[in-house]
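From the thread on structure requests for the teaching lab: each student submitted one protein with a one-line request. Submission from student K.M.:

"Model Cytochrome P450 2A8 from Araneus ventricosus, tokens only."
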Amino acid sequence: MRPLTTPPGRKQRNQHSCLGNGPFFLNDMHIWKENRRFVIQSLKDLGLGKTKIEAQIQDEINHFQEVLKSFNGQPIDLVVPLTSSMSNNISSLVFGKRYKYDDPERKLLDENLDELINLLGQTAFHVFFPWIRNLPFLPNWLGIEKGYKQFEGSKEIFRKKIEEHKKTLDKRNIRDLIDSYLVEMEVRQAKDANTTFEGKMPC
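Reply posted by the TA:
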């Protein structure tokens, strides 16, 4: 597999392109479309929307029920265990594994996502008017820079997972979305040096 570098002639994307380099619907539209088609098909191949994913979901439900039982009928805030359960279903498809509810890595991913959603809800106008980021002190006041740090924290986890998958990849046994992407990337790069499947996340 070739080094993950930007192909010749392609514009290098800003590391914050998703959060502030321009309106999200105008940035790298072709990349988003191509990757979206691939992701949808890959998730279907992995069982999304089909009966073969039922066992995986049922297993997660069993773990969720065990958490509820541990409270012995006492009042409980369901937000935390429900969030953990739902994110585990996603993790199983993307990473090929589920996390324990108290796993630090899973907690970090959930916390970062929650922070980003809150941030975008409060400052969504900067997505449509990215030049606002150039106003002195405004990014810190709005919390935009904090959002970048949260975003980079999650991306670092994904980078680590991708490297782990490269070392254990078996093309005859696709375990999850990352495996599927790595195989597809190699195929497309062999056919087209300028493919958007270049080993980088769309953001």
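TA comment: The radius of gyration is 19 Å. The helical segments are 29-45, 54-69, 79-94, 104-123, 125-128, 138-142, 144-168, 177-191.
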